[in-house]
Design a protein that fits this description.
Elements (H helix, E strand, L loop, with lengths): L2 E6 L13 H12 L3 E6 H4 L3 H8 L6 E5 L5 H14 L4 E5 H6 L1 H7 L5 E3 L6 H10 L11 E4 L5 E3 L22 H6 L7 H4 L4 E4 L2 E2 L17 E5 L5 E6 L5 E2 L2 H15 L3 E4 L4 H7 L4 H11 L5 H5 L11 E6 L6 H10 L1 E9 L3 H7 L5 H14 L2 E8 L6 H14 L6 E2 L7 H5 L1 H7 L4 H7 L16 H13 L2 H13 L16 E2 L10 H9 L2
Parallel strand pairs: 1-2, 1-3, 3-4, 4-5, 8-13, 11-18, 13-14, 14-15, 15-16, 16-17
Antiparallel strand pairs: 5-6, 6-7, 9-12, 10-11
């Protein structure tokens, strides 16, 4: 069987490690189930520096060293791949995650150490790759879902890996391979009182996919939204679209997983890291949330404070949870069921209160819907956590004024993020030429500069510069209409001839139509993951 090392890069270096590498832990569990020997080095949890990465890579004769992560981990990712190939040159260096899927040609050009990578969903392609490695077969062209090097080092693709139809076929993540105590130590977050007093919080994922088409959201081949097709240079490349294959675990699968975590690790809080927790409810005919909450209570997971109708304190027993929502999807009866079961917060992607921006954003919501959603959530007893963004292409003083007025109306304080054209998003392809111009033609510099959108990078606003957006962020945070009026007067009198403008350009890498990737045959997918 293959010896596999999976490395999780450091995420958000400015913060403590808070979220387990869920995807890596799932792939590890699939590989272990098939009999392979797997280790995970979670650099995000340990944060011991590159000397330890080097020791880990040299610790065994690894057949495969896999490194994956988000685009924002690129600097650590690049250094780790350089170390892995230098220390363990005979190991197959495998890239993966959103970082690789969103721009495989660029990553393989910038990093000659990488042998190949998984593109899109890897639940089936990864175990099939390990099977080939174990058999000594290096002809990767026969395995779907891969990008590999040709004879001249160029990036070649196999057909898109089909997505698995039934998420309940997945094993539980390989929690035993992670340093959970480090994550438990950083359980507390300021989303709710229950989460702030948590001692052993963990992440779970109930679904893959979202029915929205937000321009800023990246598409990574896990929702049937990716195909391989010719780009503007006539070369095979990843192409993303509005295709959707939305899949979700059954309520019983999720509740059994949480019950296992509660019994094994004594967890007291679950963060549901779905793109949109309410999507499953909408696609199930409004039964999924109620069934989940009912099963949660019947399994004895309901927090005692909710059971007894008392104020939460540290004597509470049970498991609270929180997740994400959308202004038009949350309904009163669903919120009531969630509160009773133990939900303490929901993150709402409000983004803006401006009608023009909301219309062009693709979120299928309105100013009034945003107002109603926050108010409805507050009345249910669940704390709404709004997410705001400024720096949209259409951003104006009027749109910022609408944001501030909305925040004041709802009694919300929020420091907005910046509109960021992450690779894989529609914005990235629309504004790629402008991004290159802002980074002197060096796309890699942009990738290395990306953060979590609280940091400003490439500007896509047609009106405001980086300096102006930084000032507007503070004004919105302070909810100061007075300062906004003064800034507008000053701006109107200043020379605007040299203001940078993000110019949209057409691209063949993103299609607004619904091109759809294939779905894996259920029996074949189950066999690939289980080793049957």
């Amino acid at each position: 069987m293959a010896k596999v090392l999976l490395i999780n890069p450091v995420v958000r270096e400015e913060d403590e490690p808070r979220h387990i590498p869920y995807g890596i832990a799932l792939l590890a569990a699939i590989a272990v189930k098939r009999g392979h020997q797997v280790q995970i080095y979670d650099a995000n949890a340990w944060r011991r520096g590159f000397d330890i990465v080097e020791q880990v890579c040299a610790a065994d004769d690894w057949d495969v060293i896999g490194v994956g992560g988000l685009t924002t981990t690129y600097s650590f990712f690049k250094k780790t791949c350089e170390i892995a190939k230098r220390v363990s040159p005979d190991s197959l260096l495998l890239a993966g995650g959103g970082l690789f899927t969103s721009m495989p040609h660029d990553i393989m050009r910038w990093m000659p150490q990488i042998d190949l990578g998984c593109v899109g969903e890897a639940f089936v392609s990864f175990p099939r790759l390990l099977e080939a490695v174990d058999a000594g077969d290096r002809d990767f062209s026969k395995i779907s879902g891969l990008a590999y090097r040709g004879k001249d080092g160029e990036c070649l693709f196999t057909p898109v890996a089909p997505t698995i139809p039934d998420l309940d076929e997945l094993p539980y993540p390989a929690w035993d391979l992670l340093p959970l105590d480090i994550y438990f130590k950083n359980s507390q977050e300021l989303y709710s009182e229950e989460l702030y007093t948590s001692k052993r919080r963990i992440d779970i994922n109930g679904s893959l996919g979202c029915n929205l088409v937000c321009r800023y959201c990246w598409h990574l081949g896990t929702t049937g939204d990716m195909v391989i097709d010719k780009n503007e240079d006539g070369v095979d490349d990843v192409k993303f679209s509005y295709g959707r294959t939305i899949r979700y675990h059954s309520p019983s699968y999720i509740v059994n997983m949480v019950k296992t975590l509660h019994e094994r690790y004594q967890i007291d809080f679950v963060s549901m890291i779905d793109e949109n927790l309410m999507t499953m409810d909408a696609f199930s005919g409004r039964t999924w949330i109620k069934d989940l909450c009912k099963a949660w209570i019947e399994a004895g997971l309901q927090p005692t404070c909710r059971r007894d109708g008392v104020v939460h304190d540290e004597s509470c027993r049970g498991v609270h949870f929180g997740g994400t929502s959308h202004a038009t999807l949350a309904k009163e009866d669903a919120l009531s069921a969630m509160y009773a079961a133990g939900c303490s917060f929901l993150i709402y992607g409000i983004e803006s209160f401006d009608p023009v921006i909301l219309k062009n954003l693709g979120k299928a919501t309105t100013q009034d819907a945003n107002y109603r959603a926050v108010d409805l959530c507050k009345k249910s007893g669940i704390r709404p956590i709004p997410n705001f963004i400024i720096g949209f292409p259409e951003e104006s003083f009027d749109s910022i004024r609408n944001d501030i007025q909305g925040l004041i109306k709802l009694g919300i304080h929020a420091k907005p993020h910046f509109a960021t054209p992450y690779p894989g998003s529609e914005w990235y392809y629309t504004y790629k030429q402008s991004i290159l111009e802002q980074y002197d033609g060096d796309l890699e510099r942009f990738i290395m500069d990306l953060g979590d959108a609280s940091k400003i990078s490439a500007i896509i606003s047609h009106k405001f510069s980086a300096m102006e957006l930084l000032g507007l962020q503070t004004i919105v945070h302070q909810r100061s209409l007075r300062l906004l009026d003064q800034a507008e007067k000053h701006w109107a009198g200043a020379d605007s001839a040299t203001r940078p403008v993000a110019v949209p350009r057409p691209s063949t890498n993103f299609e607004r139509k619904k091109i759809q990737a294939p779905i894996e045959d259920a029996d074949a997918a189950k066999a690939a993951m289980s080793g049957a």
